[in-house]
Amino acid sequence: MPTYGYKCKACEHSFEVLQRISDDPIQVCPKCKGKVVRMLYPVGIVFKGSGFHINDYRKPEKHDGGNGHKDEKPKPEPAKTEAEV
After folding, report:
1. What is the pLDDT of residues 15-30, one digit of tens each?
2. Dihedral sign of CA atoms 12, 5, 21, 47 in order
3. Which CATH number do you get for residue 26?
4. CA 41, 6, 27, 4 torsion-angle sign
């Protein structure tokens, strides 16, 4: 069961209640009987491990030979025919 946070508009008393999702939200402050609103909390996402993006979705890197240029293989020259020789 999730925990919901509430805050009173009148006295600003905040409290948490363990409720089912199907339960109606609380509308009355237990302290002053004022109107309460449900508070929203940010969802924290933590990616653990070696990193799914780096391992699964990254394009393969082309290595440079340390000279600042990408390794490119020279294009082979087309074979010459007897007429060109």
Report:
1. 999 999 899 999 999 9
2. positive
3. 2.20.28
4. positive
Ramachandran category for residue 67: left, alpha or beta (phi over 0 → left; psi -120 to 50 → alpha): alpha
Q: What is the per-residue pLDDT across 25-84, written as a single tens digit (0 to 9) for each?
A: 999 999 999 999 999 888 777 766 665 666 566 666 666 555 555 555 666 777 776 766
Could you tell me if residue 72 is inside a domain?
no
Residues 64 and 71: beta-carbon distance below 8 Å: yes
In the structure encoding, which two tokens stand for residue 26, read together? 């609380």
- Structural domain containing residue 44: 1-60
Q: What is the pTM of this model?
A: 0.49
Contact 18, 1 (CB under 8 A): yes
Question: What are the structure tokens assigned to 72, written together?
Answer: 């490119």
